[in-house]
Amino acid sequence: IDNVSLILPYLCLLDWFWYIIRCDEVAVVETDGNGRFDTSIWYLCFGDHPDLYFWVEYAIGGVWTTVYRPSIGCHTYWNYVCGSEVTIRVTDPRVAWCEPVPRVPGNHLAILGIGENIGFQQIEGPLTGAQRGLTISGGGTIPGSPFGGVLEPRVYFGEDLIGNGITHYRWSYRKIADSNNSTVSDIWHAMDRQVVRHYAYVAPDGRLKFKPYTLGPDTDPALTVTGLNLFQIQPEDPPAGSWTPQVNAHENTASAHFETHLLNGGNAYLGAGKYELKLELFNNAGTRIPFQDGAITNVQPVVAVGNAPFGTSEVDTDPAPAANLIVESGKVVAFRMIVHVDNLPCEAEIHPVKIGTVEANPCGFLNYSTTADLVTLSFKARHEHDFATFSFNINRGSVGSVEAADGRVGSPQDGYSEANGEYSKNVTAAYLLRALTPTGDSCVRAAFAETLSVDAMATNGWSRLSYLDRDGMPLAFALAPVSDLGE
Length: 487
Description:
By secondary structure, this protein is mainly beta. It has four helices and 32 strands.
């Protein structure tokens, strides 16, 4: 038959003609929110190519219902060409249609901050000086808090980046100064902890589930350069379902995980210091893409304005400061920021009270000759690098506090002298036995309880690292006149 192609469309109408054709199920995939899907089918390179037939099911009332299953003969993609797109048109009115996704044009790159509660502008920006890399405190006039634990940089990647060939990114770090701000030499280390995003979908049994999608490190064989610890920019066409950061806000908003507690093999003392973080962009071949090459602006790096958490107000951005851009051979190739890391724990200890050189006895009693006798109060409230605050209190009987001190460790506070975290103060016995209210009476004999807490200032950007806190073991003592000894 010379003109068989002319009658082929009519053969499709003959259902009995195609009765002998069968198909085997080779894959079941779920579309994303825009109806897109993909999968891999293995076959021999030489020989017949696969013939593909599709049918579609849609969850209606929690039940997977067939909404598209045309005849095999007229709707099979014979000798499918690998990588080519297949468009399936579903006309069943029970299936929701896909609206165009609103876009924000431009190759934007916005560095928001670290974690939920530290914005970019809340980190000391100067690239020199002892305060660099600390959180801003007191208007930036006094040292703030260091970072510790797992740091999670938050970054917004513009929607046009992937379409313009910028598909991957990488965060790296290197130590630039020790805890005393003395310069050290180090190489770049790529951050390699897994980064994921969760997506909600309805399983075939009708149950709602949340599936993680791994952004990196990317092991896709399409990358021509391996071992670079590259991470995907969150794709425009994600897997089936919709992004659900509510499942785990840490995992779903982090662009990387800087595990500072593991630095130097977990030795917090050696790991303390200032670190430079670097953010680079790459294409799918593993080639680094410059932000600006002197002639063309490929990427527009900006930083969030204001303090986090950003709340319900509009968040503005400013161009990234020049000090935060890495320039090589006249090209802006990366963004950088400095963080000061300190995972050292606090120290806390309450020392026995004394009159002269005599301490309270093992039963807690301390005898005074006159109420003018000086009682020595002392305790240790220490942090190796003074990144802690303390609160010391003495309660008497059931009436409440008779003595207290608090503040930043490392300096005298509330009349207490300080030397390497050791605090000391002399008060009279009369001061501790005094009346606490205008109508109250002073005591001749009294029992007291001492408490001490030392709280670390380090933060991971979400909260203060309270596991580095230490409390002194509470002590009790009683003051009584020496005349009691003769009774």
